[in-house]
Design a protein that fits this description.
The complex is a heterodimer. Chain A folds into three domains: 209 residues, NADH-ubiquinone oxidoreductase 51kDa subunit (Rossmann fold, 3-Layer(aba) Sandwich), CATH 3.40.50; 84 residues, Ubiquitin-like (UB roll), CATH 3.10.20; 106 residues, de novo design (two linked rop proteins) (Up-down Bundle), CATH 1.20.1440. Helices cover 40% and strands 14% of the residues of chain A. In chain A, strand 8 and strand 9 form a beta hairpin. In chain A, helix 5 crosses helix 6. Chain A is globular, with a radius of gyration of 24 Å. Chain B folds into three domains: 96 residues, Roll (Ubiquitin-like (UB roll)); 96 residues, Alpha-Beta Plaits (2-Layer Sandwich), CATH 3.30.70; 234 residues, Rossmann fold (3-Layer(aba) Sandwich). Helices cover 24% and strands 20% of the residues of chain B. In chain B, the strands form seven sheets. A seven-stranded mixed sheet of chain B has the order 16-15-23-22-21-17-18, sandwiched between helices. The chains are: A alpha/beta, B alpha+beta. At the A-B interface, helix 13 and helix 14 of A face strand 5 and helix 2 of B. Bound molecules: flavin mononucleotide (FMN), iron/sulfur cluster (2 copies) and FE2/S2 (inorganic) cluster. The site of one iron/sulfur cluster has 14 residues of chain B, from helix 4.
């Protein structure tokens, strides 16, 4: 990627940059000073809106617009920093904060000031133990230096910031699940309205933003909205962190403008450096598991907010790519995917709770070599029945379940059917009957997607 | 009043309610689990989804929106157009019902809820007959979650009504949810069982057979049960109840919707505190004591005998020598019949209200709520009809006296005949003062349920039937007059109090409380128009 200077990762590898001193010597906190001393909150909101910054947490909602939903006459505002980062294949928030915690904290201060928040919570993924200490040390230092607390920089602005550690639930990354969990309750996403901007954490107007979204703010303040908007593709502006995992030569976290193609990400020398061990790409989950899957023929997909839609994906997601090599069994990919959502559905909404659980069992059976062609149709049907977009659920988790599961079945149907075709005759029926003997006594196998009785009952 | 259109039909509905409530009130059978009018809206079961017309973003023309919306979460507003009668809505209902059976054990044959289960009803009406599940079910456990309640988690539809009830109505928050996805379970915290004075309600609001009442467990198939509309006698709140019975045996009491009085709830004191009606030693036949020997008499000869004995006292000692003590366990009609009967024989007879006990303290729910925020109150007065009996005594005019005074006069010999109505199902009845006064009497008539020191002294003993065996009205703490039906027949031989008092008062035929109320209305305006709670919408639950 010629000519692109890293923005978010510019301090990676700099000795001691986790300390305030080194961070400041590298220009850290200068943007916060500029924002607090020379700009009004509304000016910052406007600047961010003009920069075209869209949320990096998955949904890609324009950040400035989100902030403008806060009621004008609010008294106390809460900023929730979404550091739950549980999307499979995603570790850019972690990478960023581990290397440059002060950049994250600076972003938090700017966002809080812009939204006139007096309270900020960093909702940190439970498993990030080490990172917790890194962040807490940086926060303590920033507090001691007067970047948090009362009367920051003598402006009279006060901001308290706390790190709240989660308890290991994916759904607590969903913004209202996060808020419930923060309030000490079970992490069940809330029904909307009211939206968090109106009634969020502890009943107060609340903004929830991803870590990477906030980390973009110092650069926007410092270099201006026009500069930021000049990076990337139309509608998808700014730098982005991409992570790559799987059998590639250099798995890791990389920075590039939005709009990098999947092929560049996997093969580029600045990025993952090609497939390891002579493997070929069979499939790529490009943006965190929930967005769906690309085949080896679809590697020209640009990772920005619009091109992904041309490939049937849910969205850009987190740009956390999982590369799947040609030695992988798609039945196992399917089972693993389905199992994740069955494990993580919070259990509130019927379609999500039961649908994910049912699909996981079907997929695991297919992976165990006891699949039926009809199961593939059933899975596609069940995927079509879940999600917030169709009104079947409270939160977006089942959308994120339906996309990858359905796209694996649809895009890799040939391979799956072939695998099913290789199963020994009668094996599926024996497998099923061994587990539930009663199933053949009921007319289940005559119904709908199930195969006809004559075929199902072995002689 | 908003006007909305449901399935092409214009519906006028109350303001501030949601579309689901409006639809149910208009008689639409919209399936729903998580919605309960007495609890907060969570919109999680997704059974109540509907199609709704929304303005098209470009043309602003109302268009059917492509996504379904929960009717329980959508407030009514004028001009709103929705439909349930569409293939899309039905497809969703079918699909939700299919999901509920993915892990359900289908053990209806041994389930108490069978017959009144909304999983059965909705599967039948909105689901499909055949299952497509060929994979093993996830089996959730059965748990003992409290002294009165069992939880069969494998039957649960996770509507979270029970959890919300303990949070929002009882305020005790014993129930919670643990684990995620289809492994999610209702549970209690370690060492904190479900045990609060309103706990029985969770069994009622559970739409399926997941929460079970131990006292009803495996006792009766619900389709054999008949229901009578009654009023609870546990305290002066006057909760409306349903009495479920079969072949003159009561199986359970449940709340009956009564907005503003008890809403959808009753307390455990009322729900479970009626086993005294099954006491083996209940007084069932009229008895007359002659020469120290008690002997049963025939119901048909009773009126003449009583009349003669009272007339005798009046002749000897004058019309103020007869008095009666009316129990707050009586119905208004019974008190009125007895009062008018006695005054007919002894016009100056003083009437007093019997003792009123106190049980515990007023209990307000949700526990710890601010004054004025109560959703349920259990009152310390453990009788249903103190105010009603007082109103009848006052309405009858003549001399009313308080209990002490009557007892004093009896002890002093001014009162020679005393009619005492008991019926208190409690060990501290009767007290010593009453027993001492009874010693001096020429004639002691006692109406009571269980034998004791007072009934042994009675010259004439009459059975007092339990309120479930009688009909009449109670007036609650706030002066609300509420009728109750007879649910079961009294034990063999016994007649309901109203029936023999009716005969005593010289009337022929069957005692009908409503008829007595009409007669009462002359002196007691309004008694012919008691408060009857509205019917709950047919398809609400
Ligand atoms: C099931 C689910 C899980 C999510 N997990 C995360 C997460 O781990 N981190 C995150 O930033 N956003 C997550 N989101 C997205 C958040 O709901 C929200 O859109 C985001 O935090 C908004 O921040 P942004 O506007 O800065 O992107 C999740 C959403 C869903 C539906
Ligand atoms: S959609 Fe799934 S994860 Fe989201 S609230 Fe409903 S059950 Fe929970
Ligand atoms: S136990 Fe009953 S009331 Fe409670 S969540 Fe389950 S189905 Fe609903
Ligand atoms: S979602 Fe409306 S009743 Fe459950």
């Amino acid at each position: 990627m010629s000519g692109f200077e890293p923005v978010l990762l510019r301090n990676v590898g700099v000795e001691g940059v986790r300390t305030l001193k080194v961070s400041e010597s590298r220009g850290g906190w200068a943007a916060a000073r500029k924002a607090l001393t020379t700009m009004t909150p509304d000016e910052i909101v406007e600047e961010v809106r003009r920069s075209g910054l869209r949320g990096r947490g998955g949904a890609g909602f324009p950040t400035g617009v989100k902030w403008s939903f806060l009621p004008k006459d609010r008294k106390h505002t809460v900023l929730c920093v979404n550091f739950d980062e549980s999307e499979p294949g995603t570790f850019n928030n972690r990478y960023l904060a581990e290397h440059d915690p002060h950049l994250v904290l600076e972003g938090i201060l700017i966002a809080a000031y812009a939204t006139r928040a007096d309270l900020a919570y960093i909702y940190l993924r439970a498993e990030y133990h080490e990172l917790f200490h890194i962040l807490q040390r940086a926060l303590d230092e920033a507090y001691a230096a007067g970047w948090f607390g009362a009367d920051i920089l003598g402006t009279g602005y006060r901001l308290e910031c706390h790190i709240h550690r989660g308890a290991g639930a994916y759904v607590c990354g969903e913004e209202t699940g996060l808020i419930e969990s923060l309030e000490g309750k079970r992490g069940w996403p809330r029904i909307k309205p009211p939206y968090p901007a109106v009634r969020g954490a502890f009943g107060r107007p609340t903004v929830v933003n991803n870590v990477e979204t906030l980390a973009c703010l110092p650069a926007i303040i410092e270099r201006g909205a026009e500069w930021f908007a000049s990076i990337g593709t139309p509608g998808s502006t700014g730098p982005k962190l991409y992570t790559v995992s799987g059998p590639v030569n250099r798995p890791g976290c990389f920075e590039a403008p939005l709009g990098l193609t999947v092929r560049e990400l996997i093969e580029g020398d600045d990025f993952a450096g090609g497939m390891a061990g002579g493997r070929k790409v069979k499939a790529v989950i490009p943006g965190g598991l929930s967005v769906g899957i690309l085949t080896a023929d679809e590697l020209d997909c640009r990772l920005d907010f619009t091109d992904v839609l041309n490939y049937g994906l849910l969205g850009l997601g987190t740009a956390g790519a999982i590369v799947i090599g040609d030695d992988a069994d798609m039945r196992k990919v399917l089972a693993n995917t389905a199992r994740f959502y069955a494990h993580e559905s919070c259990g509130q909404c019927t379609h999500c709770r039961e649908g994910t659980g049912w699909m996981a069992r079907i997929a695991e059976r297919i992976a165990a070599g006891a699949g039926r062609i009809a199961d593939l149709d059933l899975i596609v049907e069940l995927c079509g029945r879940m999600g917030m977009m169709s009104g079947m659920s409270i939160c977006g988790l089942p959308d994120g379940a339906a996309y990858p599961i359905r796209l694996i079945v649809e895009k890799f149907r040939g391979e799956l059917e072939e695998a099913i075709g290789r199963q020994p005759p009668g094996y599926t029926e024996r497998y099923i009957r061994d587990r539930i003997p009663s199933v053949y006594a009921l007319p289940v196998l005559q119904a709908g997607a199930a195969p006809a009785r004559e075929r199902a009952v072995p002689a | 009043m908003a006007t909305i259109i449901i399935d092409g039909r214009e519906i006028r509905c109350r303001d501030g309610i949601n579309v689901l409530q409006a639809a149910l009130e208009a008689g639409f059978d919209v399936p729903h689990y998580c919605y309960h009018p007495g609890l907060s809206v969570v919109a999680s079961c997704r059974l109540c989804l509907m199609e709704m017309k929304m303005p098209d973003p470009r043309t602003n023309e109302p268009q059917w929106s492509p996504r379904l919306v929960p009717s329980c979460q959508t407030p009514v507003r004028d001009g709103l157009e929705v439909r349930f009668d569409s293939e899309k809505v039905r497809a969703n209902q079918r699909s939700v019902m299919e999901y509920y059976l993915v892990n359900h054990p289908l053990d209806c044959p041994v389930c108490d809820k069978a017959g009144e289960c909304y999983l059965q009803d909705y599967s039948y009406r909105f689901g499909q007959a055949a299952s497509r599940v060929v994979d093993p079910k996830h089996k959730n456990p059965k748990k003992d979650i409290g002294p009165r309640t069992l939880l069969y988690q494998d039957r649960c539809v996770l509507c979270s009504r029970c959890v919300r009830f303990t949070q929002e109505v009882s305020g005790t928050s014993e129930l919670c949810l643990v684990d995620r996805g289809h492994r999610a379970e209702i549970d209690v915290f370690p060492g904190r069982p479900l045990d609060n004075p309103l706990q029985g309600n969770v069994v009622d609001i559970c739409p399926v057979g997941s929460l079970l009442d131990k006292s009803f467990l495996f006792k009766q198939r619900v389709w054999y049960l008949r229901t009578a509309a009654s009023i609870c006698r546990g305290c002066s709140t006057g909760c409306a109840i349903r009495v479920d019975h079969h072949e003159d045996r009561v199986y359970r009491l449940r709340p009956r919707w009564n907005p503003g009085v008890n809403d959808w709830w009753i307390c455990d004191r009322g729900r479970f505190g009626w086993d005294f009606i099954r006491a083996p030693d209940r007084i069932v036949s009229p008895q007359i004591c002659r020469g120290g020997e008690a002997g049963r008499v025939d119901w048909s000869s009773l009126p003449t005998m009583i009349r003669l004995r009272i007339e005798q006292v009046v002749r000897r000692h004058g019309p103020t020598s007869v008095a009666a003590i009316l129990s707050p366990e009586m119905a208004c009609e019974e008190a009125w019949l007895l009062g008018t009967f006695l005054r007919g024989l002894a016009p100056g007879a003083p009437l007093a209200r019997g003792p009123v006990f106190v049980e515990g303290q007023e209990e307000r729910f949700p526990v710890g709520c601010a004054p004025g925020q109560e959703r349920f109150i259990i009152r310390p007065e453990p009788h249903p009809n103190r105010r009603g009996v007082e109103a009848v005594i006052e309405g009858l005019g003549g001399e009313s006296a308080d209990l002490e005074e009557i007892l004093g006069r009896a002890a002093g010999g001014a009162i020679r005949a005393l009619w005492v109505v008991g019926g208190y199902p409690r060990p501290d009845w009767p007290d010593q003062a009453l027993l001492a006064a009874a010693e001096k009497l020429e004639l002691l008539v006692v109406q009571d349920m269980l034998p004791g020191a007072l009934t042994r002294r009675a010259h004439i003993l009459l059975p007092f039937c339990a309120w479930l065996e009688r009909e009449g009205t109670f007036m609650n703490h706030a002066g609300l007059l509420q009728p109750f039906e007879q649910a079961v027949q009294p034990p063999e031989e016994a007649l309901p109090d109203g029936q023999y008092l009716w005969a005593l008062a010289g009337h022929a035929g069957l005692y009908r409380a409503a008829r007595v109320r009409e007669m009462m209305a002359a002196g007691l305006p309004g008694f012919d128009r008691p408060h009857v709670p509205p019917e709950e919408p047919e398809h609400a639950h």
